[in-house]
Write a structure and sequence with these properties.
Layout lengths: L5 E2 L2 E2 L4 H12 L15 E4 L8 E7 L2 E8 L4 E6 L5 E3 L1
Antiparallel strand pairs: 1-2, 3-4, 3-7, 4-5, 5-6
Amino acid sequence: MVDIVGARHCPEAIPDEEIAAIKTLITSVLPYDSHPYLHEGMQVEVVRGPLQGVHGILLRKEKHHRLVLGVRLIQQAAAVEIDVNDVVPV
């Protein structure tokens, strides 16, 4: 099976600097693992720890990641510090 990189079946070029960064990593002596692509504002699910199974929004505050849990009807939310390795994209 072959997939096209891009949106709506329109091919897009992967930026050269992103490919170069990955090539540099895999040719280095540093250990590495694949990791889900996460960004601020993304809907995520907690997969480990006391909040396992909870869905929220990933946020970054200073150098820490936080999980925001909101109640839409009352327009209120709570945020808790979370290890980014414990969440995956929904």
